[in-house]
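#struct-pred
JK: can someone run the complex with zinc ion? inputs below
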Amino acid sequence: MRYADIIVDITLEKLDRTFQYAIPEELTGEVRPGVQVTIPFGAGGRTLSGFVLTISEQPKIAPEKIKPIICVNHERYAVQGQLVSLAAWMAEHFGSTMNQALKTVLPAGKKGNIKKRKIVSLSIPVEEAEEKLRELSTKKRHSVAKERLLEALVDESEIPWEVITGKLNINSSIIRGLEKDAIAEVREERTFRNPLGDLSAPGKVIELNESQKSCVDRVLSDMAKGENNTYLLYGVTGSGKTEVYMELIRETLSAGKEAIVLIPEIALTYQTVMRFYRHFGDQVSILNSRMSEGERTDQIDRARKGDCKIMIGPRSALFTPFQNLGLIIIDEEHENSYKSEQAPKYHARDVAIERARLAECPVILGSATPSVESYRRAERGEYVMLRMPNRVADRSLPECEIVDLRSELKSGNRSILSMRLQELMEDRLAKQEQTMLFLNRRGMMGSVSCRACGKSLKCPHCDVSLSLHRDGKLHCHYCGHVERKPDTCPHCGSEYIGGFKVGTEMVEDMVKARFPEARVLRMDADTTKGKEGHKDILEAFANKEADILVGTQMIVKGHDFPNVTLVGALAADLSLNASDYRGPERTFQLLTQAAGRAGRGEKAGSVVIQTYQPEHYSILAARDQDYSEFYEEEILYRQMMHYPPEGHMLQVLLTSPSLKHLTEKADEVAGFIRAQDLHLRILGPEDDRIAKLQDVYRKTVYLKDSDYDRLVDAKNRIGDYIRATSGFNDVYVWFDFDPQ
Ligand code: ADP
Ligand code: ZN
Ligand code: ZN
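RT: done, structure tokens with the ligand placed:
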């Protein structure tokens, strides 16, 4: 006999509360996770409907006391069923409780919390309002605020309430005053008719070129055959991937279905969204992390009701409850923001593929620099590869050159700007063209490298950079190797070793000092804190209000500035020194993307890559803008070291405010899993990369194996062990598969 764990009310607080029912013989084929069923509940012959979460062979109570499922409910709640089933898959595949997974997948939907938006508009014709304005200003005791508001309404015709009381600094009594005089009216809107601002003229449909057409045709003809594949759309920057997405979306909508488009949060700019909006108007909706809960609920409700057909957003948009999902697109699929940092620590790519399987639709993964994982899968034939090797209209890729920072140091140039870069910047200033300078600091916290020879200090066992901990020693957070920090470089003997301390603010100062006449803008986490922070800076730069934009990697993501003809990567190898195995991949991706920013308009572009490691394959491949050159080397490294995708890793992170309990329990978990004799490689426990965070200590055990499912099995055993053992009250355990 088989049994199903069933959840009766998925809106309940206690999502983990399931009830076990027997699966009658005749229903065995139909009862699967996510299916909705009718069950007898309590005494008195009452029936309820519930969702199947899991299926097992083990009765939890005496088998004769377990009641059977009455029937499977077809059709109803199709989407909810899919989402519950998706949650079950995520909990299993990425290691979380069902509760955590359901909370991730099911939209919050706090009904009481829906924010109404008040809009103020003129209730008289504009000419009349102008007349009133003149009248007002001639009055003896005139109200300046009232005039300002009326003036603003003449210009804008309608303005959100909070803009008036906020940005315009006008008291609400003034608004009510105009309302009383029947000059203005206030209305409340539940849903935003259009969260994107005013609609501009519809965009003209671009005629696709041959390589775009052949990509679209391949997907459509597969769909016509009933094949729903995952496609890797590998197209260089500017090859026209977005137009391919649009065409496929258009086809999806005309088949009466809906589409989800994932875009990394950072690239979710006004510019990008407007492109979709111009084509599809009100059918487009967006989600982003800056929205309030109420705003998100609005958008999700619109989707559920079919009021919008295209949802654009970061990874959480995957859970949009479309009834008839027909297409999922993940743009910039290599971005690591697609991996969730909270349990379940899922990767949007894998979840998209699972959701598409449930919804029976294709997935398009687009990138100019595919993740090594996806490229490998495409190579193996798990994904269908679609290539677009050329830029639209045969615009050339920019000229790239490498500058060796070691020789700059030798020749006495201690500036962060090499002589070559300064020369090109001067040239661009003279020509009134724009320059972007970026400093790629991501993930290099604590790494130590030599400024004379460029080498970083690496773990002898894992070939990743060691990181400097507070104890003054160098640690490998994969295997626990510890060594003393040397005083001189072990490779060349130089004394110039240490962390790299330059920040974007310093770069800005240096640039201003060197080019006093230039107008410089800076974009980093500090300057983009406000709600519109990104947009303001990018818009100013796009409007040529600055000559030079200095920033972190956020400036190279997906923005299109036709007047930028020079891009400088100031310290290209910083991300190489990250203390994890993805350093070379990230470096290649960032540099290629950065290069893709140069010369997007009519004028050709140049790129200067400054580095201490000019011979590193990811730097050389980025200069050549040659993905396969990079990939061929990288996959060898992954194979040799058994890193993903050529092997898998499960990080078991234990956290506790008590170091004593943590140490005990981490040893216990590692001991337990070793004793299971699963033939996995087990490393640790070791202090996590971040050994202590907000007074909570963190230790890590790594499990490695070539087979993902064996790691899932190990995860389940650890989960069972924790549930069955006492002492885990103040020790939390988190799982992370193939950590980023
Ligand atoms: P990607 O997403 O691959 O970087 P985009 O889709 O942004 O490329 O296209 C780059 C530029 O080329 C855009 O300005 C786009 O409008 C234009 N473009 C794309 N396809 C075509 C085409 N078939 N004909 C003319 N222009 C195109
Ligand atoms: Zn050295
Ligand atoms: Zn190591």
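RT: quick notes.
Residues 505 and 555 are 14 Å apart (CA to CA).
Confidence is low (pLDDT under 50) at residues 191-201.
JK: thanks, will look after standup
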